[in-house]
Every structure is written in structure tokens, then in C-alpha cells.
Amino acid sequence: QVQLVESGGGLVQAGDSLRVSCAASVRTFREYRMGWFRQAPGKEREFVAAISRSGSRTYYIDSVKGRFTISRDNAKNTVYLQMNSLKPEDTAVYYCAGDHTISNTYSSSRDAYDYWGQGTQVTVSS
User: Fold this and answer.
1) pLDDT in tens, 26-67
2) Could you tell me which of 121, 74, 122 has the C-alpha nearest to residue 98?
């Protein structure tokens, strides 16, 4: 069973930066593609960013392109989401998700991921 634990959330002001992390409790982390999703109050969980097994391929939702960067450190079993120029509309609970795959691909679909973390709250004040 894979456990994913997010950390790094908090309360920031608009324009600030924040990095959230997700640590995986699996030895074969390099065989998992990873994604970040978020859920704001009263809204459905939405895709934010994804990264392939090797980290060579990434994909973002349009609203965060140029502001957010997903990365991973396979030696540390950790995936990161660096968030710059934060906006109040970025306020949400951020979840990381993982999927074991043999291909170096990414996915923006919630259904593609088998493992989810418990989430970390990110609040951006105006």
C-alpha cells in the first residue's frame, strides 16, 4: 500500500510563493507518475499539474501555467509543487496523487490515479 503525505500548506498573501511537498512511502517511487489536484469549497476536485516517472514530462492546467512548477526527486521519494504569484482563487486543499505505470507519461485525469494523500490547505488572502 502506497501512502502519500502532503506538507507545506499555509496562509499567504496574494503575490506570495509557497511550495508544497508530497512524500511517498514506496521504494519504487520512480515507477509512479504523479499529479497535483486541488479542491476549493463547494467545487469539484480539479487537476493542477502532472509529472511523468522520470520527471522529463510535465503538464499544467492553463490557469497555473507560468506560475506553478511541478518537480520530483526520485532519490527522496518526493514530488513538489512550487507556486509563485499566488492568487486568492488558488485557495484550496491541495492533494497529491500517484499511479504506477510502465510508461513515461503523465495524466490529468482523476481516474488515472490509484493513490491519494490527505491534502494540505493553501489559503491566499487578497
Assistant:
1) 999 999 999 999 999 999 999 999 999 999 999 999 999 999
2) 74
